[in-house]
Every structure is written in C-alpha cells, then in structure tokens.
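Annotated sample (chain length 185).
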Amino acid sequence: MATAPYGVRLLVGAAVTALEETRKLPQTILMYPMTVASQVAHLVMKMQQDVADLVIKGDETLESLFPPKDEQPEWATFDEDIDEHQSARPSVDGERLTEGRFALFTGGEPEEAAEPKPAMDITADAPGIVAELDYESLTLAQLRARLTSLRVADLEALLDYEEATKARAPFQTLLANRITRATAK
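Output written by the structure step:
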C-alpha cells in the first residue's frame, strides 16, 4: 500500500483527534470546575509559600541589623540558673518535691510548723535490715518486691529509718500499708 502524502496524514490525524476530544467533552465539562478549583488552590498555596519566604528573609535581615537581646523573663528559672547555695528541695507546703524518682505532692504542713526530725547517723544508727537490703539504693518497685519476705519488726525499723532520714512519702506509705496488712493477718 502506498503511503499518503504528508498533508493528508496530518489532516486525518487532526480530524481523529478532534473526534476523540468531542467524545470526551461531556466528561471534560463535568471535570472542568474541579480542575479550575485545583489550579486555584495550587496558585494560593504557591502565593502563601512565596509570602512566607519573604517574611523569613525580612526576619533574617532585621535580625542581622538589630540583634536580639538575650533577655529572660524574671519568672523563668532553669536548672542551670539555680545557685549551689539554694536548696534543691522545696519546702513541704504542698509544693512538688523534685527529689527522687517518685516525686509527689506532699500535702503536709510547712517545714517551719512541722516537728523537727531527729538527725540519724546513717552508718551508726541504721538498723541491720537497712544494710542487709541495701535500702538506700532501692527504688520503690524494688522495695515493694522485697516487702513480703520481711517481718513486721523489720518493716517498722525501715519505716522509722525512712521517717528519720529522707522522709519520702511514697516509701512511707508503702511501708505503713504493708505493716497494716501484715499485722491484720
């Protein structure tokens, strides 16, 4: 078969393409509003990005011309701001205790009104059970796991020791509850 001249092939191709596009016209017309909305949304987002870029450049320029002051609000305190002479442990007036792994609200009375706790020499006056359990290094969970194997006298000695030294509320509560359960049996 002989090939048609170039111009004829061009006209036939254009006619077939026009026919195909005419068949697609109803669907194209239905999709046209979505296409326009998508293009408008794209344009709006592009404008927002361009505006944000301009603001960033403006911030950088103003910061280079007028460097920011290194000011800190008077109410803001950070760990590195605390002097060594300041107490790391807050008073016991309902403030949060930040000492230890299980810090809790105390809800007790202020230290000035509380009874002074007798100072206990840890090495000399500590009951034997303290050294036996290595009580000072135990976490609350580790202590809870060992409580069932202790006698009531040992539990009371640990509670007295805790009250005389660190007075950690979770430890005191755990020991007191175990003493109550053990004596009720």
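Annotation: The CA atoms of residues 33 and 39 lie 10 Å apart.
Annotation: The chain has two domains: 1-67, 91-184.
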